[in-house]
Automatic annotation (TrEMBL):
Entries under NCBIfam families matching the protein: bact_FAD_ox (TIGR01679)
Oxidoreductase found in the keyword field: yes
Record lineage: Bacteria, Pseudomonadati, Pseudomonadota, Alphaproteobacteria, Caulobacterales
Keywords, in A-Z order: FAD, Flavoprotein, Oxidoreductase, Signal
Signal peptide positions (record): 1-18
InterPro entries: ALO_C, FAD-bd_PCMH, FAD-bd_PCMH-like_sf, FAD-bd_PCMH_sub1, FAD-bd_PCMH_sub2, FAD_lactone_oxidase-like, Oxid_FAD_bind_N, TAT_signal
Pfam families: ALO, FAD_binding_4
UniProt keyword Zinc-finger present: no
Protein name per Swiss-Prot or TrEMBL: D-arabinono-1,4-lactone oxidase
Domain spans labelled FAD-binding PCMH-type: 55-220
Species this protein is from: Phenylobacterium conjunctum
Length: 465
């Protein structure tokens, strides 16, 4: 969405008028760059850090096996904890280890085809998977909104896109291959090692390292993308109908504006009209400027935002789905996302927005709202029924502790399950109450890794080991 220069100047003048009247001194709330850990620790071990910067480690050993056989030979003798890493887009401490960090970047690409089922190496980045499948006229039915994750990381954390009838990425796996700490490579599917299959599809690297998945694909159709802004209450009222109507639909609630941005995608035979240059970063910059100038007054801040966003023209594009569903996200942030029963999604969202506007004037990032279809993986947040996700973000320079203090209690009260790769404070007892097959998963985990060589401190808490 493009915002006119005139509207930007109008909004900026609101702050000048307020200050000139002597009402309030404008406070610039821009934060300094967070301090970075040393590149080397006292043992000269090299720093690993996640995308947003809040997780880091100094692994004693790093490995980038060139083949599945090399990986299988490595695992029995590698110092633990052994943790696989993709793009480092998880906000939770899934990856940090002082043992062995295993990169699957060399195990990437489409290994072959079985009809319309693609055999994909787990190190493949989603941004590369789209064009690779398109060469065969195929596509992933759904994709998340960031295209940097690896397939293995996306499956392991139940990463998903937006679509009431479209499941998360792991649900498209027809079978998989799992390298274990004993050096064995296990093939798992609904008919071969079925319990390992249902446990491993979403397993956070706690059973072994997924090396390859056979993924169901769909025809590579062009999608018609529309983005438009409307009042927040109207977006909430229409959300259920839009999830039912559109192939993909999501919306972003924008705190301190009274507005929401809607995004829909539908299959079309129209000629391609590429999306064009990124506008998301500019949108965020406008919201940050409003925060920096006008955080002292919510009414004035909302007025400025309306002046800016009322001139935003709806965005439309037509292109192959992989070019539209996933995008670049150059502005770093931290995130908490919970998956809620559908009937609780909008009430929880409204409570979250009200809480942020009451207590956290420093927040300016939009809140993402999606619906995801059900699947049967044991630790899938969408196990036993569809779920509605609500994702709260804050700029990487800003304090994110409020998510645990103010936002997580709302999600938990509404029956939410946290995204495995995003911020949460839950432990084994909480998950036992949320997942009917929790004990079954723990049993498979003990069988495959009895000594817990794949578990770092964070996973010890998650699994109660």
């Amino acid at each position: 969405m493009k915002i006119s220069r005139r509207a930007a100047l109008t909004a900026g003048s609101l702050g000048v008028v307020a200050a000139g009247a002597g009402a309030v001194t404008l406070a610039n709330r821009e934060k300094p760059e967070p301090p970075a850990p040393p590149v080397l620790d006292q043992n000269d071990r090299l720093l690993w850090r996640n995308w947003s910067g809040i997780q880091h480690a100094y692994p004693a050993q790093r490995a980038a096996p060139a083949s599945e056989d090399e990986l299988a030979a490595l695992l029995p003798k590698a110092p633990g904890p052994i943790r696989a890493v993709g793009a480092g887009h998880s906000f939770t401490a899934l990856v940090p280890t002082d043992g062995t960090l295993v990169s699957l970047d060399n195990l990437a690409g489409v290994a072959g085809w079985d009809g319309d089922v693609a055999q994909v190496w787990a190190g493949t980045r989603l941004g590369a998977l789209g064009p690779a499948l398109a060469e065969k006229g195929r596509a992933m039915p759904g994709l998340p909104d960031i295209n940097k994750q690896s397939l293995g990381g996306a499956m392991g954390t139940a990463t998903h896109g937006a679509g009431k009838a479209i499941p998360a990425i792991h649900a498209e796996a027809q079978s998989l291959r799992l390298a274990t700490v004993t050096g064995e490579v296990i093939e798992a599917s609904p008919t071969k090692n079925p319990e390992i299959f249902q446990a491993a599809k979403v397993s956070m690297g706690a059973l072994g390292v997924i090396t390859q998945a056979h993924l169901a694909t769909a025809a590579n159709r062009r999608l018609h993308r529309r983005v438009w802004v409307e009042d927040f209450e109207a977006a909430c009222d229409q959300a259920e109908a839009r999830w039912a109507k559109h192939r993909n639909f999501e919306f972003y609630a924008v705190p301190f504006t009274g507005l929401a941005a809607n995004i829909s995608h539908d299959e079309t035979d129209e000629a391609a009209r590429p999306r064009g240059p990124d506008t998301d970063s500019g949108f965020l910059e406008v919201l940050r400027s409003c925060r920096n100038l006008l955080a002292f007054s919510t009414p004035l801040r909302k007025a400025a935002a309306h002046a800016l966003l009322s001139t935003a023209k709806p965005e439309e594009a037509v292109d192959e789905g992989w070019k539209l569903l996933s995008t670049e996200r150059p502005v770093r942030f931290n995130e908490m996302e919970y998956h809620l029963p559908p009937e609780a999604q909008i009430p929880a969202l409204k409570e979250v927005v009200a809480t942020i506007e009451k207590h956290r004037p420093d927040v300016f990032f939009p809140i993402e709202v999606r619906r995801i279809a059900a699947d049967d993986a044991w630790l899938s947040p969408f196990n036993a029924g569809p779920r509605g996700s609500v994702a709260v973000h804050c700029h990487y320079k800003d304090q994110y502790g409020f998510m645990f203090e103010l936002i997580e209690p709302i999600f938990r009260r509404h029956g939410g399950r946290p995204h495995w790769g995003k911020l949460h404070s839950l432990g084994a007892a909480d998950f036992a109450a949320l997942y009917p097959r929790w004990k079954d998963f723990l049993e498979v985990r003990r069988e495959l890794d009895p000594q817990g060589r794949l578990l770092n401190p964070f996973l010890h808490k998650v699994f109660g080991v």
